[in-house]
Amino acid sequence: MGEPHVIVHIPLQLFGLNLSVTNFVVMLWVVATVFFFVLFNNLLGLVPIPGYFHAGTSNLNVTATLAVIVFLIVQGVAIKTHGLKYYPGVLFPKGAPFWLKFIIPLMPVVELIGIFARPFSLAIRLFANMTAGHQIIIVLLTGDLIGVTWMLHHGIVWKIISPAPLVGAIVMDAFEIFVAFIQAFIFALLTALYLGEALEESH
Questions:
Q1: What is the reported pTM?
Q2: How far is CA 135 from CA 45, 60, 122, 148, in A?
Q3: Which range, of 8-12, 152-156, 189-193, averages the lowest pLDDT?
Q4: Which of 21, 72, 109, 198 is deepest in the core (most CB within 10 A)?
Q5: Where do the domains of the chain lie?
Q6: Rg (Cα) of the chain, in Å, rounded?
Q7: Within 10 A of 56 (CB to CB), how many other CB atoms are there?
Q8: Residue 59 class from Cβ within 10 Å (0-12 exposed, 13-18 middle, 19+ buried)?
Q9: What does 38-77 look like in DSSP terms, one character per residue?
Q10: What separation in angstroms does the CA of 140 have from each of 127, 135, 147, 198?
């Protein structure tokens, strides 16, 4: 793998500083937009209005669309940087044995599957994590409300410990906020890694 290729879109020098708009600068806003979009949609599901607010990322249509957009941007960056010669370099890596590339073309098939598996894995990972987390919170809150109601009607000891289930729900909500940030970070990080690979020379 070679050095990343820098493309200057708008050359700009200010007080001796190079402030040119390059392909790396353009990609920073792409990655940042992906991060904040995913984070906002993750956190939206934690707004305590049942039946009205839902995490956008718990909808497979949303995560799949976002993953396809990232996939298309990465392919566009690769083609703009290297041209169509990028794909032969990816499908037929230099270090792979000759027989795996040409006699029994296993390597191109594996690499092609890897390329198209990326958007699929991005979409499913985010969708599954956010759906599971929010479903657990709904189950816990429902169980807590039933449990607290029962405790309040069965003696002084149960009334004293009745806040315990609600504390558990609050802890779970805090954990889900953490997960929302982590999932947004992972999605943005993978986007950045894929963009970085697209800028590198095919190997």
A1: 0.71
A2: 10, 15, 20, 20
A3: 152-156
A4: 198
A5: 8-199
A6: 24
A7: 19
A8: middle
A9: HHHHHHHTTSS-TTT---GGGSHHHHHHHHHHHHHHHHHH
A10: 20, 9, 10, 43
Query: What does the block give as tokens for 94?
Result: 């230099």
Q: How confident is the model at residue 202 (pLDDT cuts 50, 70, 90)?
A: low
| 3-state DSSP assignment of residue 9 | strand
Tell me the H-state helices in the chain. Answer: 23-44, 60-82, 86-91, 98, 106-152, 155-161, 163-199
- For 46-51, the CB contacts below 8 A with 24+ separation are 46/134, 46/137, 46/173, 46/176, 46/177, 46/180, 50/138
- Kindly compute the dihedral angle of the four CA atoms of residues 17, 23, 25, 31, in this order, to the nearest 10 degrees: -160
